[in-house]
Specification:
Antibiotic biosynthesis monooxygenase, Alpha-Beta Plaits, monooxygenase activity, Dimeric_a/b-barrel, single chain, ABM_dom
Length: 96
């Protein structure tokens, strides 16, 4: 299993709305096209209207690589970048 958490900080409220729209599109494409993606959960952050957090779990590192190179994900990355002021990625290590 391979997992990560990503935090995105949007520029402003309009950017957050657009980011959420792009997220809805890519989540549908991930569910339909990525059998190696086990969990792809997206969240708003309570009390921080410009922050979003994604929790992602993949079957293995190869499934993650397939996700990253998928056309729908590459398109999402390109379209989301102008909406953001910061991104933080944390790769997780399983315990037990």
């Amino acid at each position: 299993m391979f997992a990560l958490v990503v935090r995105f900080d949007c520029r402003d409220l309009d950017s957050a709305v657009t980011f959420d729209e792009l997220t809805a599109e890519v989540v549908r494409a991930i569910a339909e096209n990525e059998p190696g993606t086990l969990t792809y959960a997206t969240h708003a952050v309570d009390g921080e209207p410009l922050a979003r957090v994604f929790y992602e779990v993949y079957r293995d590192r190869d499934a993650f690589q397939a996700h990253e190179t998928a056309e729908h994900v590459r398109r999402f990355h390109a379209r989301k970048e102008p909406l953001l002021v910061a991104t933080r990625v944390e790769f997780l290590q399983p315990r037990n």
